[in-house]
Specification:
The protein has 1 helix and 11 strands. The protein is mostly beta strands. The strands form 2 sheets. Strands 2, 4, 5, 6, 9, 10 and 11 form a 7-stranded mixed sheet that branches. A hairpin with a 6-residue loop joins strand 4 and strand 5. It is globular and about 40 Å long. The mean pLDDT is 95.
């Protein structure tokens, strides 16, 4: 099994930046597709960005141009660089992994299909 641990969350003012990291351990064959999901209080879990082993990213429209997802397959890490943050970006951010590389774009719109996700890290953006 794969184990995912997020870090880097915190509080920031609107317009600020944060960098989230995810440490991956265990069976990395289950990480063909990786992604970041988020859930606002009282809201549903939504896909923010996904990336396959080849480094091809997919982004939700709401974060395009502001967020950048990247992965280091040799260090088994996943990163989300977030800039120009808005209050609506607030929520708990989860690192997620899936064994299928071919449905990586689909997982962005159906994040609950990811095989596994971490415990989450909280991001709070104040106006």
């Amino acid at each position: 099994q794969v184990h995912l641990v997020e870090s880097g969350g915190g509080s920031v003012q609107a317009g600020g930046s944060l960098r989230l990291s995810c440490a991956v351990s265990g069976y990395t064959g289950s990480t063909k597709c990786m992604g970041w999901l988020r859930q606002a209080p009282g809201g549903e879990r939504e896909g923010v960005a996904t990336i396959n082993t080849g480094g091809v990213p997919h982004y939700a429209d709401s974060v395009k141009g502001r967020f950048t997802i990247s992965r280091d397959n040799t260090k088994n890490t996943l990163t989300l660089q977030m800039t120009n943050l808005k209050p609506e970006d607030s929520g708990t951010y989860y690192c997620a992994a899936d064994r299928s590389e071919y449905r990586c774009s689909r997982l962005l719109s159906q994040p609950d299909l990811f095989d596994r996700w971490g415990q989450g890290t909280l991001v709070t953006v104040s106006s």
